[in-house]
Structure formats: structure tokens, C-alpha cells
Amino acid sequence: MAVDTACASTLTVLESGVAAIQSGRCDVAIVGGTIPLLIPETSVGYDEMGVLAPDGVCKGFDARANGYERSEGYGVVPGTRSTASFAGVRISHCGNVSGGLTKPSRSAQAELIRDTWHGAGLDPRNDADFVEAHGTGTPVGDTEEGNGIAKAFGGGKKKVPMASSKATFGHMEPAAACVSLVKACLVIDRKTLLPQANWTQGNPDIDWSEVEVPTQSRPLTTRDGKLITIGINAFGFGGSNSHCIVQEYRDPRRAVAPGGGSSSWCFGEGGNSSQAQQQQKQQQQQGRPACVPLSATSVAALSELAAKWADGEISEASAADVVAWLVKHRSHLQQRCCIVAASSGEFRDEALKWSSGEPRPGKVVSGKPVGRSLGSGGSYRLAKQASVLVVFAGQGQQHADMGRDLYATFDVFRATVDECGRYYAEMHPDGASFLEKTGFFRGGRRRPS
């Protein structure tokens, strides 16, 4: 389906896609915007209208704003039923209140913004961390939008930062919000606000008592576990308005909040009890043991990290998911420890004991990787010539009974397998090694029948 609401097109399509998913009309919606600048006549017409900047630079919300610069590009945003980053998106029209085809309406924009945030169960005055504005750099458009943002987001505890990516990339018109969406996601991912490009001083016709434009990079932080929440504006020629809320998605496997209370991982089976009872039950419940790997660049840093994990809170997550994420997606630095626990309460106790220098034998394994040293950028490099590495890949590079032959003839291989067997036995209630339970490596030679 093709949609054209001028510079509001991408968010208009996004609203249609989200509505289609929510209503069950589709499971996946691919939202995109594109603008190829193929003919000069359009640019000539815009120039004659006086909306293009003579110097070819967008200066959003700046006192020197004198028009925008056209640019071309495209973007695609896939959406599914599991998408959790869009807290809300709505569209509207200025009606006949703006006073002109190209003149926006601050009251209509402010009303749409409030409706979108309230519809998502959010307060624009206190829940907004940043606004990615339309901000084309036209004097009339910037004045109307800037005051509309101040009207909708003003009245909170602090000024709301706003900026426009068009000052950096130019105005991609129907595809402009694709850039805004990408920028919003990067701001959330990097947790950093970037300075507005081409900025000197603010447009004097904007109420700056409620909003501000970042002039230097600064961290974007929240309190009490609050999700980072960003509003995005897109307004079109002819009166089309659209607003979207992009919110941080906090994977429960990553949502560690030091100082946020005791750990509440689900080591065992859950139940239908209340949240408080369930959390207490999880603290005490014994489940399958988990080996939680932590690492840092120094012993002191590792001790501090273990203490933070002990006091952190991970809700609605299983220990297996937490461990899988740590193993696959975290860098394994020079100083390491592995904490073995069968409940969240036990993990907390062992982590605190290890960080205070009183670990229990068999519950925490710590040290440095053998034969490696830390290279530049946190990566590892071999400190000596690599030894032979044996890999059982299961893809035909080995022969029958190869492991038994190695176990019987190579001391290093046999010692390593036995060590793995001891760790396995420590983590299982019956205390039996997997070598004893399976007969791996130690059994007699089996001949193919």
C-alpha cells in the first residue's frame, strides 16, 4: 500500500502498520519511506515558493533559519506482533485552523502529541526524555512546532530537549521520519544525546522556558528503572500531522539494575501466587544449578561487578536465559569468575561472599584464562604459540572412537576431560560425573556393525 501525506508519510504508514498488527489483519508490517530526487522541476518550484534555504543548509529552530535543503534516501522499519519499541503512534490533520496550505498549526500539533502520550498511558510532561522534532528550518514551521512542543511537553520538572536530524542530513520529505526513527533508536542504544548541528542561538519566537536544544553531547540517564522514552514529530504539506513514541525495550536478560533490590531470577517452576509471594518463593526455591559467568579487567572491578549483580534485579527471566546472554553477548575479559547457584537467594549470597573475599569452595571458580593476555580494545591475543586444538564438530572430520583413542593416549586431553567431569559432578545433585553416567571416552572400542 502506498501512502502520500507529504513529509508525514512515513509515520502515517507506521500508524497504519501498527493498527493492522493490533487488529490481527496481519502478523508482520514492513514500513518504509523513500525519496529519489530525479527531476529538477520540483526543486525549482519549492525554491520559487521560498521554502528552500539559499545557503543549502537546514538550521532547525535556529535564529538564522531561512528554509531547508532537500536530500534523498530511504529507510525500512519491520514490525511484528512482538515489537515492543513503539509505545504509541497517531495521526491527525490541522483542519482549517492553520490559515494556509503550508502553514502548520501549533494547537493541532500539541493536541495530537498529548493524545498520543495519554493514549499510551504516559505523561508528556514528565515521561519524555527527548523529542526528535520535524524541525525543517523554515521560520514559520519552526516557530509553530517549537511552541507546539513547549505547549505539549511543558510544565514538567525540567526542560525537554528537542533537536532535528535534518540539520545533519537535510530534509528527505516523505522519508524524513525514517531518519528520525533510526536516530531515536541510536539515542536509546547509546544512551547519549547529540548536539544539534548548525546551531548558534534559538529562534526568538519560540518559548524556550519549557524546551531546549542540546549544544553538546551528554549522557541520557533515567531513574528508578524508568525506560528511555522519545517522541518523534512528522508534519506534512497540506496539514497532515503524525507523532510516534519510541520506548526503550529492556530485555529481561539484560535488565540488571544495581541497587534495585534482591535478585529475583526464576530458577525453578513458577506459580499463580501474588508477585511478592512469587518473588519470595523464587528467592528460596531450589532449581537446576546455573553457572553464571562474570568478567572484568581487574580483580577489583570484578569484585565490584559481582556485588552489583548480587544487588541487581532481573524480573521475569530464567537463570538459563541470563547465562545464555552472558555467554553469547558479553565480552569475556581478563579477570573472570563463575558463580554456581541453584536459586536466586543462593546466587546473591555466593556473589556477596566472593566480592568480600569469602567464597565457599566449589561454588565460585575464578582466575585468568591460561596462555592469553589482554590486547588492545579489550580483545584477546595469544601470548604464546597456539597448541593443538581438538574439535568434535560432528561434520565428518573425525572417525569412530577418536575420543576414546585420545583419552587413552594423550595426558593433556585426558586431564581436561576429567576436569570437566568433576565440574559436572559438582553441579548435579547425584554427584556423578558424566563420564560415569555415559561411558564417554572410557568405554571399550565400539566397532561398526
From TrEMBL:
Region feature Disordered, mapped onto this chain: 267-290
Database matches in Pfam families: KAsynt_C_assoc (PF16197), ketoacyl-synt (PF00109), Ketoacyl-synt_C (PF02801)
InterPro entries: Ac_transferase_dom_sf, Acyl_Trfase/lysoPLipase, Ketoacyl_synth_C, Ketoacyl_synth_N, PKS_assoc, PKS_Beta-ketoAc_synthase_dom, PKS_NRPS_Biosynth_Enz, Thiolase-like
Entry-linked CDD domains: PKS
Keyword vocabulary terms for this entry: Transferase
GO BP field: fatty acid biosynthetic process
Ketosynthase family 3 (KS3) domain span: 1-248
UniProt record similarity statement: Belongs to the thiolase-like superfamily. Beta-ketoacyl-ACP synthases family.
Designated name of the protein: Ketosynthase family 3 (KS3) domain-containing protein
Organism encoding this protein: Chrysophaeum taylorii
